[in-house]
Write a structure and sequence with these properties.
The complex is a heterodimer. Chain A has 10 helices and 10 strands. Chain A is globular. In chain A, 33% of the residues lie in helices and 25% in strands. Chain A is of the alpha/beta class. In chain A, helix 4 crosses helix 6. In chain A, strand 9 and strand 10 form a beta hairpin. The longest helix of chain A has 14 residues. A two-stranded antiparallel ribbon of chain B has the order 1-2. By secondary structure, chain B is mainly alpha-helical. Chain B folds into 2 domains: 39 residues; 241 residues, MetI-like (MetI-like fold, Orthogonal Bundle), CATH 1.10.3720.10. In chain B, helix 3 runs antiparallel to helix 8 and helix 10 runs antiparallel to helix 11. The chains are: A alpha/beta, B mainly alpha.
Chain lengths: 269, 282
């Protein structure tokens, strides 16, 4: 399908950050529930944007709207626009599968397919191109190295992926997402079911990955956001309470709700 | 104390129910094995029948039955998988779901003789296909369609949503998700249903006796429009000449072979289901 021309924004000079994703007046209802109200956001390129907020605040719904993985939910109703590189993702003529190759996603629980480790890494690209065996192996190696899994699995690439530990599985899932060569990676609480060591490994990986990718990272763990976030978006009850550079919000947020949440992890909005 | 007594009474009564069920099955199997085993020999299994079955073997009855159910499985599987995928992945409307369920259960409830009459009127008389084993396969596939469809639907529908989302998020189209994720994982469920369906179909007499089978004098068919011999119709024919002890003996023997075939299909279904469960539990 023909993609809409993506006009480079020539006004981006010097320190001004290019915005990869802009969200304008975005609203979501699922059946009668108003999940997201009037979201206005912009996501800068090659940075880690953390979305924090209490559970049920609509964080997941928001990032799941960006790659339209929410489409399958019955009773979903949206208004407003999400613009990715000049393309309005909810337009009728958008090729959703193509969009998702550019905006990858890692889910809360690692989900590996009942196949080998290598096949799992290549899962997203096996249908797209005719690659030789060697090329496939090279791609698998490259991405497993990126997620620092290569040393652990290089001698058993043909073992079932299910035999890995949860932390390894989640890193495998990230490698699988990277193999599709997305521009943006959405991560929906990727470490919430993992042990602290794996969590740290993934956090360190994120900081490395932001050189080449734009990362949107949903977490309910404030400490985690503190460790990795360049930008912070605080969502509560379907509304964006505050957004901006993480350093500023963590050190001197002026919003009383944000302050309360960062202090007590509790929000009564 | 009375609560404890109630408890024990309840335990005893459900235990007795299980016992009676098992005894019925054991009794049936026992009688069939007791009477049928003396008839079974290599000759019985490898020779064709003579004197309307009173002597000779049942090799063409076995091959006919297996031919019928294999083709009915081949006809049934794509239809059942298609229906199951449509119902699980495309149909969002709950009313339509209820309607399809009603239709499937109704089809399952149609008495088998009705299928036979339908086959006779539609295929044999109206389409003038004559007595043909292929028509028998079509009719049997209609009969087992509900079982296979529901089984395939359940196994596809029970695949966690996260698999669909994960593969869609990797940029797979809907049909790619279906072909590469759902079908491979849902296939064993469909096969389980298919084997259960086959186990039922192979023992059916009523739907095929007018349209697909002859009672004797037929060997392997060389075209689609020839009759075959089958085990259930052979047993029926032998029982009708029950005054002849040799025929009765062979009827028991054929029954034992039929039951064994059903057991083989059922046990394979059980094994595939067990294997599938261990995969989905992990």
């Amino acid at each position: 399908m023909e993609q809409k021309a993506i006009k480079p924004n020539l006004s981006v000079v010097g320190k001004t950050l290019k915005e990869v994703i802009q969200i304008k007046n975005f609203q979501v209802w699922i059946k009668e529930n108003h999940i997201l109200a009037n979201i206005q956001l912009s996501i800068p390129k090659n940075e880690i944007t953390c979305i924090i907020g209490p559970s049920g605040s609509g964080k997941s719904t928001l990032i799941r709207s960006i790659n339209r993985i929410n489409d399958g939910i019955s009773g979903l109703n949206i208004q407003g626009e999400i613009i990715f590189n000049g393309l309005s993702v909810n337009d009728k003529d958008v090729d959703v599968a193509q969009l998702r190759t550019q905006i990858g996603m890692v889910f809360q629980k690692p989900c590996v397919f009942p196949k080998s480790i290598k096949e799992n890494v290549l899962f997203g690209i096996q249908h797209l191109k005719n690659l030789s065996k060697l090329e496939k192996l090279q791609i698998a190696e490259e991405h497993l190295k990126t997620v620092s899994l290569w040393k652990e699995v290089s001698h058993r690439l043909n073992d079932k992926a299910i035999s890995l530990s949860l932390g390894q599985q989640q890193r495998l899932c990230i490698a699988r997402t990277l193999a599709v060569k997305p521009e943006v990676i959405l991560l929906d609480e990727p470490t919430s079911s993992l042990d602290p060591v794996s969590t740290r490994a993934i956090e360190e990986m994120m900081v490395k990955l932001k050189e080449n990718y734009t990362i949107i990272f949903v977490t309910h763990n404030i400490q985690q956001a503190k460790r990795i976030a360049d930008n912070l978006i605080f969502i509560c009850d379907g509304k964006v309470i505050e957004q901006g550079p993480a350093s500023r919000i963590f050190s001197c947020s002026t919003n009383p709700q944000t302050k309360a949440y960062l202090r007590d992890e509790y929000c009564d909005c | 104390m009375s609560r404890k007594l109630q408890n024990n009474l309840f335990y005893a009564s459900v235990g007795i129910a299980v016992l009676i069920c098992s005894l019925i099955l054991l009794f049936l199997f026992g009688i069939i094995i007791w009477n049928g085993l003396p008839a079974i020999s290599l000759d019985f299994l490898t020779n064709s029948s003579t004197e309307f079955g009173a002597s000779g073997g049942i090799v063409y009855q076995i091959s006919g039955s297996i031919l019928l159910v294999i083709f009915s499985a081949l006809i049934c599987l794509p239809l059942a998988l298609g229906t199951a995928i449509f119902k699980s992945e495309y149909l969002k409307n709950e009313k339509a779901h209820k309607w399809i369920n009603t239709l499937i259960y109704s089809l399952n409830g149609v008495p088998s003789i009705i299928f036979g009459i339908f086959g006779l009127i539609f295929f044999v008389n109206l389409l003038n296909m004559g007595i043909s084993w292929f028509v028998g396969s079509i009719i049997l596939s209609m009969m087992i369609l509900p079982t296979v469809t529901l089984s395939a639907y359940q196994s596809i529908n029970s695949i966690p949503t996260v698999y669909r989302e994960t593969s869609s998020a990797l940029g797979l189209n809907k049909w790619q998700v279906i072909c590469h994720v759902l079908l491979p994982q849902g296939f064993s469920g469909a096969i389980t249903g298919l084997l259960i369906g086959i186990a039922r179909a192979i023992g059916e007499t009523a739907p095929i006796m007018f349209i697909a089978t002859a009672f004797s004098g037929v060997q392997l068919p060389s075209s689609f429009v020839e009759p075959v011999l089958t085990l259930p119709t052979h047993i029926l024919a032998l029982t009708q000449q029950a005054t002849n002890p040799a025929a009765l003996q062979n009827a028991w023997g054929a029954s034992l072979v039929l039951v064994m075939l059903v057991v083989i299909f059922s046990i394979s279904a059980l094994f595939i289901r067990l294997r599938h469960q261990t995969i989905s539990k992990r």
